[in-house]
Amino acid sequence: MKKLRRTLSESFSRIALKKDDTTFDEICVTKMSTRNCQGMDSVIKPLDTIPEDKKVRVQRTQSTFDPFEKPTNQVKRVHSENNACINFKTSSAGKESPKVRRHSSPSSPTSPKFGKADSYEKLEKLGEGSYATVYKGKSKVNGKLVALKVIRLQEEEGIPFTAIREASLLKGLKHANIVLLHDIIHTKETLTLVFEYVHTDLCQYMDKHPGGLHPDNVKLFLFQLLRGLSYIHQRYILHRDLKPQNLLISDTGELKLADFGLARAKSIPSHTYSNEVVTLWYRPPDVLLGSTEYSTCLDMWGVGCIFVEMIQGVAAFPGMKDIQDQLERIFLVLGTPNEDTWPGVHSLPHFKPERFTLYSSKNLRQAWNKLSYVNHAEELASKLLQCSPKNRLSAQAALSHQYFSDLPPRLWELTDMSSIFTVPNVRLQPEAGESMRAFGKNNSYGKSLSNSKH
Fold first, then answer.
1. Does residue 98 form part of some domain?
2. 296 and 397, same domain (yes or no)
3. Which of 172, 185, 303, 426 has CB atoms 3.0–4.6 Å from 192's, for a disulfide?
4. Tens of pLDDT along 323-337?
5. Is 253 inside a domain boundary?
6. Catalytic site positions
7. pLDDT (tens digit per residue) in 368-409
8. How far apart are CA 372 and CA 363, in angstroms?
């Protein structure tokens, strides 16, 4: 009888322990799967549709959000329910679930863990925006440098949609030329996105080397930019805010797309989107004229502007006043459009022919003379800087342009997570002095630029 009692007692203990070990993610997913939240495209499987042996490894599918819609009470409820899940975990008795324990250091149960606010030390402020502050930080878990994007939360507003979208998109993007999202920390006052630390950006790099960059370095930066864009465009994601400040440059010369706050997962068939995207200098003429129907060609105009800026050393179209001034600067070089050069331009909301000076198109070298110093640079730039969006080169097609013909063939065979600098002889060249640019010197691929057209 004593032996039977002991056996039954052990069985009940095992059942109770199994009940206490329900994972935090299972609780949250169970709660959220009963809601159909407006503004969310995610589909979360109810737990009863998942085999028993897979329940502990439940994963949410990627979500995308529209920051131009006003936050609804339904979204706020999800925010509250997530807090409820967190409160449930911290207040529940018993051991932490195995899924929560997976980040713990083996040395001590009180060691720093990923996903905790106290896991990172702030070192210095790097910048501040309208809703977020970025700090240089250090992980207490592994000692690595990180960038902490701290987003301030307001109780009545909830989490900004731009932050939600940036996090949800970056969680699914794994590429050497896209900034890596390490961790997400959610507290009552802040949402912190923890990124890999990259020490500078293309804007600061060009400021440090005024007058135009070494042509070999321009080629490597542009190749990496197109490589990252091709990756996201193949996944129907538009960046929508390409500019030098959003292109990070590592100390080895690796370029990484960053700041996906305005990025958008583009569905098929096409929807209309806001035309209040892209910093003015890098905004294409179709969007400036009020178009809200666009695709990956939106980003490709920005690529053309950045390409010219890297070579020439000045912004391609530095509008100083407003949209009208920005368009005038574009038309001065590319010509004022009409139905012959741009079919459908007259149907755009803000196109009024009488408002614009009538300009004829020019060769790009007339506006930016350094394009003529490098083989095929002017041709590539002209195929990117097309007023009609349908005429712009895609990222994938641009990677095959003759401008890149002297690069090692292995660059086109790299896996997504492989850096171009893993290929032998691919490296940045030292930039020339502050006043002299290094055009015409031998490049790192064994070919001379001295025979380029002038």
1. no
2. yes
3. 185
4. 999 999 999 999 999
5. yes
6. 241
7. 999 999 999 999 999 999 999 999 999 999 999 999 999 999
8. 10
